[in-house]
Amino acid sequence: MRMCVDMKKCQYHGQCVIAAPDLFSFAEDGSLKWVETIDDSLRQQAEDAADVCPEQAITLEG
Amino acid sequence: MAPRVVVVGASLGGLRAAEALTSLGLAPGQVTIVGAERHPPYNRPPLSKELLEDLGDIPDAFAKTAFRLKPEVAAAHWRLGTPAVAADLGTRLVHLSDGSTLPYDALMVATGLTPRRLPFPGGDRQRFVLRTLEDAAALRQALRPEHAVVVVGAGFIGCEAAATAAKLGCSVTVVEPQGAPMARAIGAEVGAALQRLHTARGVRFRTKVGVLELICDRSGTLKGVRLSDGTELEADVLVEAIGSSANVDWLRGQGLDLSNGLLCDNHMRVEGRGDLYGIGDVARFPNPLYDAEPRRVEHWCVPGQTARRAAETVVATLNGAPPPEAEFRPLPSFWSDQHGLRIQSFGLPAIADGIEVLEGALDTPQTIERGVAIGYRRAGRPVAVLAIALPPGRALRHRAFLDA
C-alpha cells in the first residue's frame, strides 16, 4: 500500500505522528517525514493516521 | 435476516461509525445513516477558522470541507435531510421527519449539538451562530469591513470568530459574562494571556457582564446591545457563541439519563443496554485515563475515538461475543487558530487545578508569539499540555509531560 500526504493541505496538527508513530515523525527542522510504502503489518496505523488528520491530507492507495 | 444498525447523525461521528462498522465486517446494506442536514458529512472546524475568511457560496464551502467517503460507506443507506424525530426503544424503531420508520438491532446516537441562542427577540437577520455550512456562509456575508461586530461568548468558537472578523476589518467586541476568554477549557491564567494577545490585535473585551437586551429600531433592525452594567455597544452583527446543547430531545420520555447528553458506559453503551450507543459530542462517558466521572467532551477527536469504540462493541454484541476487554482510555486533543497562532492541546486542561509554564512565557503578546508550552496538573498529576505558537515538532515533544 502507498501513502501520500498532500503538503498543500497539511496544517501540521501532528495527529498522524501520534496515531502512527512508526510511519510519521517531525524532523529537527519541523518538517513532516513519512513512510511512503506501507507494510501490511502497519496498515491499521496508516488508516488511523488518515482518519485522524483534520485536513484529510493523507491518502492511501492499494 | 442480517442485523441492522441505524446511525443517527451524519457528521463526523456518524461517518466514523459507518466506516468502523463496515471495516469490522458489516455489509453496507446493514448500515443506515440518518442526517438532519442535507449535506453528506463535512468538517466543521474550518467554519470558524481559516475557511470563514474566504468562504464562497455553500457548494464551494461544501467542496472544501466534505469528508471522503470510502466505497463501502458510500454504499450504505443514507437518509439525509430527514432528522430522527423519535425512537421507540421498546420496539426498536426510529421515526424520521418524513414519517418513515427504520427498524434496528443496534441504534447509534451521533446527533451532535445545537448552538444555544440568546433569549431575546429582534434583529433576526443580523444574528448568527456557527455550526453548519449555512451558518458560516451567512455570517461571512455579514462580516463587512467597518461593521460593528459583537460576539457574545468567549469560548473557542467565539474567539476564533472574533479573530477572523477583526482580520476582515470589522470592529469587534467580545462580551463574556465569566472572566477571561476560554477559561473553562484552558484556565483563567492562560485565558487572560490570550485575551492580551487578542487585545493587541484589535479585539475589545467586555468581561463579567452579560447581555441584558437587544436594541432594535422600529423596523426591527439591530442597532446594539445593552449590557448588564448599563452600558451599550453598537452592533451591526451579533454572533451568539454561548455554547451548545446536546441533540437528545428525540430520545426523551423513555427513561434514559439525558441530563447532559446521553449517559454511556466505557463501551459507549447506554448502561444496561446492548442496543443503544452514544458517539461524539452527545455522549457523556467515563474516561479512566482521568477518573470514573462521565463527561461530554466537545473536541474534534472524540467522534472518531468513540465511534470506533462503539462500533467494536456493536459488532461483538451482534455476533454474540463479549465486548472488547481493554478499557477505553482515549487521549482527548483539540486545536484552535486565532490571529494566525496555533493553539494545540493534548489531554483535558479543563479538569486541572494548577499550571506550570514548560517553555517560553505567557507575559506579553510578544512572548506568546514566540511560542509557549503549559503543563496542567490535577492533584499533582499531569492531565494536559497546551502549546501556543510552537513549531509542530516542539509542540508534540511536550506530550512527554503527560508521561511524567
What does this molecule look like?
The complex is a heterodimer of chains A (62) and B (404). Chain A has 62 residues and is α+β, with helices and mostly antiparallel strands. Chain A has helices spanning 15-19, 43-52; strands at 2-5, 24-26, 32-34, 58-61. A two-stranded antiparallel ribbon of chain A has the order 1-4. A two-stranded antiparallel ribbon of chain A has the order 2-3. Chain B is an alpha/beta fold. Chain B contains 11 helices and 26 strands. Chain B has helices at 12-23, 50-53, 58-65, 71-74, 133-142, 156-167, 183-186, 188-200, 301-318, 365-369, 392-397, and strands at 5-8, 31-34, 77-79, 84-88, 93-96, 101-103, 106-109, 113-115, 127-128, 148-152, 171-176, 204-207, 211-216, 222-227, 232-234, 237-240, 244-246, 262-263, 276-278, 283-286, 294-296, 333-338, 341-347, 354-359, 372-378, 381-388. The N and C termini of chain B lie far apart (52 Å). The model of chain B has no long low-confidence stretch (mean pLDDT 96). Chain B: This is NADPH-dependent 2,4-dienoyl-CoA reductase/sulfur reductase-like enzyme.
Task: Write out key terms for the chains shown.
heterodimer; A: 62 residues; alpha+beta; Alpha-Beta Plaits; two-stranded antiparallel ribbon; 4 strands; globular; B: 404 residues; alpha/beta; five-stranded parallel beta sheet; FAD/NAD-binding_dom (chain B); oxidoreductase (chain B)
Task: Put the structure in a nutshell.
The complex is a heterodimer of chains A (62) and B (404). Chain A contains two helices and four strands, in the order βαββαβ.
SSE diagram, text form:
The complex is a heterodimer of chains A (62) and B (404).
Chain A: E1 2-5, H1 15-19, E2 24-26, E3 32-34, H2 43-52, E4 58-61
Chain B: E1 5-8, H1 12-23, E2 31-34, H2 50-53, H3 58-65, H4 71-74, E3 77-79, E4 84-88, E5 93-96, E6 101-103, E7 106-109, E8 113-115, E9 127-128, H5 133-142, E10 148-152, H6 156-167, E11 171-176, H7 183-186, H8 188-200, E12 204-207, E13 211-216, E14 222-227, E15 232-234, E16 237-240, E17 244-246, E18 262-263, E19 276-278, E20 283-286, E21 294-296, H9 301-318, E22 333-338, E23 341-347, E24 354-359, H10 365-369, E25 372-378, E26 381-388, H11 392-397
Parallel strand pairs in B: 1-2, 1-7, 2-3, 7-19, 9-16, 10-11, 10-16, 11-12, 18-20
Antiparallel strand pairs in B: 4-5, 5-6, 8-17, 13-14, 14-15, 20-21, 22-23, 23-26, 24-25, 25-26
Helix pairs in contact in B: 1-9
